[in-house]
Amino acid sequence: MLVLFLPLFLFLLLIGAPVFFAMLAAPGAMLLVEGMNRDLALMYRNIFNGIDSFPLMAIPFFMLAGELMNKGGITMRLVAFSQSLMGHLRGGLAHVNVLSSMLFAGLSGSAVADTSALGSMLIPAMEKNGYSRKFAAAITAASSVIGPIIPPSGIMIIYAYVMEVSVAALFAGGILPGIMVGGGLMLVTAFMARSGDFPIASERASWGERGQAFWKAILPLMTPVIILGGILGGVFTPTEASAVAVAYALFIGFFFLRTLKLSDLPPIFLRAALTSSVVLLLVGAAMAFKTVVSLSHVAEDMASWILTLSQNPYLLLFLINILLFIVGMFLDAGPAIIILGPILGPIFVQLGIDPIHFAIIMSVNLTVGLATPPMGLVLFVASSVSGVRVEQISKAILPFLAVEILVIFLITYVPAISLGVPRLLGLAT
Question: pTM higher than 0.70, yes or no?
């Protein structure tokens, strides 16, 4: 009887209930029906216990660092540096869009922040340069999913906490997949540029101009180096690294670029706090949700059922990728990881898949879901920024989604892509 909390949970999601309330109401109702009042009290106590965690403090700090960087004019310098490198190519501004997303990913770790910050600047510039507005919105949405893959990454912090794996290993494991997604998008753009006669954004920059653009962007570009270098070098923990990122963003904004004022801080703190509160409430609800998953033995039952389909881990990985891709169409990456991670992770570890490898598969797949029709979150953000309807962006984004799906399967079946850097750094076996 208790296992009925899952269909009830899915029903609440389908009728539009917020994920946080659905995750608490469905299992809570079934525990109440079963008369399991002590377990009901434990479940709701776990909401606070799930949030009360030192590692999770990294989430609000990284979000605050991203807000400070964005408000401090960092985005413009990254775009200028990207344009000095790639603006002379055919389809140059489209390449600049992708490269800027890759650089911005090392600062924010958020696909929504990427779409909003870069889209508001690059979409009008691309339209002025001769691109259609729907293409500009589509490439912006497609490249923004690199944000949560290249570290720092909020969803990887959540996965690491929920599944008790190393944040540093996940961060290291996301580097090559993020570069591959960006490289794949550039290849598609280059092919489309030849067949579609895309414009050239600017003349080839001299090495002196590139050096100037790099010098203006060097301090922002040092952010991921400091964060990752400190974590991987054992200088500080991921949580401490997030606080260092905030201090560094404040230093750049106030003393180097001088683009931040004290009056800018209250709205920046408010936006970061609101975004962080949503994520942390979901994490707390996930801990409560896990309580009932454990009591109902649904994870063990599902594992047994999946293993009846096949004992071949490669076939099961293919099927799970399809499942995750469908889930990503309708559910944001964070909640999907929180819900499915505790169920699917142990199954594949039992089948001999490295936990870091599976974490990267799941994180990349669900992140690509952010740009997948019909409900991909960044599609709506890109629509809001560009003024183009979601349906039009959805059609234009399909070639980019195809290459991102190809990268997902490469990551799935070539473990070295996810595990190479962590193994090199001694973070994985």
Answer: yes
